[in-house]
Amino acid sequence: MKKVLIFSLAYYPRVGGAEVAIKKITNNIKDIEFHMVTMRFSSADKKKEKNENVTIHRVGQGSGYFSKILFIPLAAWEARRLHKTEKFDAVWVMMSYMLLPFLLSGLRIPYALTLQEGDTEHHMFRRLRILPFLPLINRGFRGATVVQVISNYLGTWARKRGFTGTLEIIPNGCDVFWFGQNILADNRSRFWTQRGIPSNNIILITTSRLVHKNAVDDVIRALLELPKNIHFVICGEGPLDSYLKNLRKKLKLSERVHFMGQISNTTLVHYLHASNIFIRPSRSEGMGNSFIEAMAAGLPVIATQEGGLKDFISPEVAWVVEKNRPDQIALQIKDILGNPEHTQKVIESARNLAVQKYDWQLLAHDMREKVFSRLFT
């Protein structure tokens, strides 16, 4: 059986689009043995454990900036140590910054690079603290056997960094069957009542990291132009938590904006089915699993077409707004609520898109045949 070593800054229980992608892809590929070097964010995280089809090796400790810098040499050292016994056939680098520990490790084996970045290109490659490392990152791009990206937008990044080889566009997806199940059925009222929200309200929901790019603040501002029975539920955590709560207070929307914290995927499906509209007016986006999950759950989706969203967000499957436009958000919410027949037609088109193109089993098969198979030849 072939062995692949993954470099990833984070993994379960810390979950984002990249972590979900690793889990779903590795779970659906049974003829490859996966190992991973990742960061140990706290003492509660085990240094070594098996999570389904991935053996996880955690190094370092802490979540601050300097801990992440220290992770680079520690991960490189751990990779060299593991390779002596495991004899890996290939490496899978999850996102561009993970090229640094891989190159520092000195492993001379084929590698695939996956781009999942959601921030802007300037943020990723033009900040002062990144510029000293940019020649090494560019070298990592050029040396990859294959680069896999989750959108056409990210594919342009690879070419700009000097990659001239095989480029595979394989998007993220979702568990279509799981998110399509309405387990709540008639219990929607009780679901929200248990969480302190009156059950007769219209619920907008976002599942987002609380960071600038996800524009949660624009949705809060849009509530000022909407009826008072429209509430906004925020599922996620992040550095803007305090800022957004202060904004809620400043705009006198404390009774209509609800912070739920980090929600597990198991519970998230209930939140989606209990809501009326999914919204994330991203300022930048690599692709965005959350949009596909909402489509699979049968929710109308409001989104921008920034970055990788252009690949699948259109008026046929979603309600499109420009970034930084709370007024457009309010208008699209009114359109969804005021035109039920058209809304249902768009919802059905979006769910068909999720089923036909974004199921994880289909995407894992593409990863096995178009990415990993190239590493083994």
Automatic annotation (TrEMBL):
Pfam families listed in its UniProt record: Glyco_transf_4 (PF13439), Glycos_transf_1 (PF00534)
Where are the bilayer-spanning segments?
none
Q: Where is the Glycosyl transferase family domain?
A: 194-352
Supply one GO molecular-function term: glycosyltransferase activity
InterPro entries xref list:
Glyco_trans_1, Glyco_trans_4-like_N, Glycosyltransferase_grp1
The record places domain Glycosyltransferase subfamily 4-like N-terminal at: 15-176
Q: Which PANTHER family match?
A: SULFOQUINOVOSYL TRANSFERASE SQD2 (PTHR45947)
Protein name per UniProt: Glycosyl transferase family 1 domain-containing protein
In the record, what lineage is assigned to the organism producing the protein? Bacteria, Candidatus Adleribacteriota
